[in-house]
Amino acid sequence: MSFLILDGVSKYYGAFGALIDMNLSVERGEFISLLGPSGCGKTTTLQSLAGFVSVTRGTIWLNGQDITQTPANQRGLGIVFQSYALFPHMTVAQNVAFGLEMRQVPPTQRDERVAAMLDLVHLGPLAQRYPRELSGGQRQRVAIARALVIEPPVLLLDEPLSNLDAKLREEMQFELRRIQRKTGTTTIMVTHDQAEALSISDRVVVMEAGRATQIDAPYRLYEHPQSRFISSFVGKTNLLPARLIIGPGVSEAVLDAGFRVPVDAGSLSDGSAVLICLRPEKLRFEAPGQALSQPHVQAQIEERFFLGSQWLYRAKSPIGALEVTCANDGHPPLSEGTSVQISWPADAVRCVRADLATSDAERQSA
What we know:
The chain is α+β, with helices and mostly antiparallel strands. The chain has eight helices and 20 strands. The strands form four sheets. The protein has a six-stranded mixed beta sheet, sandwiched between helices.
C-alpha cells in the first residue's frame, strides 16, 4: 500500500466541482508537484490534504490510516505557505522552534533539533536575526526549516517560490530539492510554473478543470503529452490540425495542403480529428532545395526573438505557422524573410485528440 493515497477525493461548492475524483498514490519519500493554471483544483487538493477544507466524497489515507475526517491540527503535516507566514517578533531560531514548543519537546532536545535544521538550510549564523533582516530566499528557508523540524510525515508546499525574483527562484528550486532529498520527507508542492515542476519533481500531476489529466515522470510528461492542454501547457509546442488515417501497417496524419506525417496512432481511431504536436526545439532549419530523407516542409521566417541562450523564430509554412528554437551558438541569426526548409525527426511527432478543454459547465454535478 502506498504511503499517501487520495481515493476518489472530490470537493464541491454547491453544484460546482473544485476537485473531481482525484486518485493519487504517493510513495514514501517522493516529491510530487501539482501543476496547472489558476482554478484547476491544485490548491483545493493541497487544502484537502492539510485538512483545511472538508472533502465532499472520497478518502485520504496516510501510512495506512484514514485521515479524511482528522482535524488539521492533528494530522501532523508540515506546511509552507506562499507568504511564508513567519512570526515577525521572533528570531529565526524561535520561529523554527515554535512547532517543537507546541509539542512540548524538552528544551535541550529542542535546541539540538533547531540547530541541526538551521545547519541543513545553511542558516546557522543567522539564528538570532529577525525575518525583516533576511532576504526572500532566507525567509523561505526559515519557513521550510520550521515545517521540517517537527519531522512531519508529509511536507505540503503552497507555491513556495512565487514571491522570489527569477534568478533566486531558479536557485531555490534546486536548494529545495536538496533539502527534500536530505530529509527524505514525502513532499507535495503546488505550482503553476511548469519549469519548476519539471526540474525538481519525481512525478508531476497536471490538473485541468478540477481533474488530474496526466500523472507522470517529468520527462514522459513533456515527451508524451496525452492531451491538447498538456502539450501546450507543459512547454511550448506547435499544434497542427489534422485527420488521422490508419492503413495496413502504417498510420498517418493528413494536414493542410494534403501534407502527410507518419504518426503513432495509439488508441485513436481511423478518421479522428487530431492535433500534431511538434516541440520547437525538435525542429531545425535546412537549406532550401536540399534533399532530405526525414519529414520537412518549405517555410519563410516571419519573426525572430532573441532569448539569450536561444533564438525563437516564427515561420510561415503550407501546414501552418511554426515556431522553431535554436541554440545561440554565437553565429549570426537568420534574417526575417529568409526562405528555409524546416525538418524534424520522424519520432518527434506526437498525436493527440483535438478535444477542447473541459468547460465549467462540465464541472457541474447533480
